[in-house]
Amino acid sequence: MKRQIQRIFLILTVVLLTIALYGCTGGKENKTTNTESLPAQGNNPSSPEPSEGGSVVVGIQQDFDSLDPHIAEAAGTSEVLFNIFEGLVKPDSEGNLVPAVASEYKIAEDGKTYTFVLREGILFHNGEPVTVEDIKYSIDRSAGKLEGQTQPLVPAYSGIESVIIVDPSTIEIHLYEGDTELIGYLTAAIIPEGYEDSATQPVGTGPFKFVSYSPQQSLVVEANEDYWMEDVPYLDKVEFRIVANTDSAMMELKAKTIDVYPYLTIDQANELSNEYDILIGTTNLVQALFLNNAVEPFDDVKVRQALSYIIDSQMIIDMVAGGNGTEIGSNMFPAFGKYYIEELANVYNPDIKKAKELLVEAGYADGFEMTITVPSNYQFHVDTTQVIVEQLKQVGISAKIELVEWSTWLNDVYIGRNYQSTVIGLDAELAPKALLKRYGSEAADNFVNFSNDEYDEVLESAIASISDEEKITCYTRLQEILVEEAASVFIQDPALLVSVNKDLKGYTFYPVYVQDMSKLYFVK
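The chain above was modelled as a monomer; its predicted structure follows.
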């Protein structure tokens, strides 16, 4: 009973703080959480009479780190470039990898040879036919095998030994060691052989082709009339408009100058529900309070464990997303099915008494001060952090929120690792190792500086194995280690709340982080 009263008191405190913050910034009015007006989770209902043509504006939250598909790293970039580029395979809305630039493929039993057949008649956006030479060039470039390259542009391609042209329609990819998960990375873009202008004039094979890009403003694409897949796209043009902040997004939505905006908070969704269709899916991201394991006090596992006991993920989901979202316990989300361990979400059930005991053992009986660095363009992560700050106060931890621009976050936090903690969401390719490799001691993207000898050994075994049963065992153990060591405070796979113009249908959710405009259309 006492704990329940404490929980209610904390919720009321967060609500009052949220109202105060919004009042100070002149932002949106705080509303009582209410999801009754929102539709059930799922895609925008289809219409039997789609209309050809028309243009839409899609609001996005960040500028592009690169238009070169082999160099771009940010999830916010990849979700847009999905419309321009295709790999040998591409994901469908059910999570299957289906042939794209290739028309068919097979993987050898030992996982060391992948064979692909080029799709007949497929064209680049410049009108040139795609050839096996283009495929070889694209994979060699991604694997860092071109003259003058010193490392792979796509890290997962480091295991590629060679790309062999078998005949004018067939290539083979040979690996140093068997790797049955490489197929999940062969979504990497196929570009013209020798093409050097991808960063300024990208050319791919996707349903839309590049028109223009204005930094900090927008990227415009138009329909690829020669697209190999029949009946799509429906739209003539799409503008991906970079929205400076949440307030700007709401202003544009209310003015009906944006047709699609996929990052709503629950308050925004409720506020817009009469003017837009509000769709609910999942982001397929790992949202966490990521802790820099190499700096004090987070170099102490007891401190990290204490934070895991303090932070109430379900309260965050309730407060920030109106109960829409899935608690997670490690660096994996439910879309990975058999590799995802649901029970791990219950290891650190909220326990303030246990958290205080751990802090005493670690020498922080009176708490400490910390900084949480958050990219200001992601209101969902900002709102999450506000709740976390209030929860940490229960044990005397004083957390300061440092809001930074996206480019600053990339340079200082993700690349430079110069931070204490951060709230962000991590995406992945359709391969479980994509989420777990980043915790390897030597991984370039291990921005939390996690280091564990057993983890490195099990990870190596998982990657080397071609047995799915063995992979499941290894990936289960890897997730357990991340929980035991409290590598970070894993929170949720957030809900994706999307506002869509009521005249548009066909918006589709994917098990990866993309905005597919090819299926969107106006209703007649």
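The two ends are 57 Å apart (CA to CA).
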